[in-house]
Amino acid sequence: MPILCEASARPDAHYQFLAGGLSGFLEIVCFHPLDVVKARMQIQGTTPVRGEVIYRGPLDAIAKIYRHEGLTSFWKGIVPPICVETPKRGAKFLMYELLKPYFYFGAPQATPLTHAMAGSLAGTLESFIVNPFEVVKVTQQANREKPLKTLSVVKYIIKHDGYGIEGLYRGITALVARNAVFHFGFFGFYNAIKDWVPISQDSASELLRKVSIAGFASSLACVMTVTLDMAKCRIQGPQPVKGEVKYRWTIDTIRTTFREEGARALFRGLGPMVMKSGPGGALLLVSYEYLYDFFKTKNF
Hints:
Mitochondrial carrier fold; 69% helix; globular; mitochondrion; mitochondrion inner membrane
């Protein structure tokens, strides 16, 4: 999630790119364990597969993952997002800034709809960059045995499934839908709420205001997209029966999940998703602004 800024990104693109990448790295390292918990909860069905443990909730999942797999298992699949995070943050932020002028719709200045539309399109374009990394990450996170090496997973997927919609780009429609909706909600909510809440003259209070709004906006966006995220994880992760593709397309995955597991399953993983994205969005905001100001002041 890039940070909202009214100034043009182009003059200081290198500062924004570097600050966004480093803040994204910090967010991943701190909150990746919750991403592992979310993925495990979304992939599992209502009954154990091959004797696998069922997670009854976020805290239960945390306890069981730690008990059966150890502390390091919470960072399974961290290499792919780290590899893509710097270019992803930089590219998305620059796209967002460049796209904003096209969505003023006659208004004299950017409105919440302007930010929502620009953010949504930037998130959509970003999907085509990160999808292969998401497939590898989810595959690693779903594995309950010893950690899988990233390059080994990449080679295996390419060898058996290829580069296309069955391989590194499986789940692309779900990811595009999730990113488009999430960024529309996040940017829209953030800017709308920010305009409603009075600006504080105290620097600490103003920082708290921005952090609170960013966290709240991110949490609302999570609620809007949890079902799409669940579908993405099921399509990109290991299938319930080896050799059979049960989850292939977004709408079909949602229908099948609803029919077999009920409406509650459509919101599986919402707890860890909000726990990760709420504070994660706030952390990203604080670290980005601090790093951006630091780089600009030091004239790197």
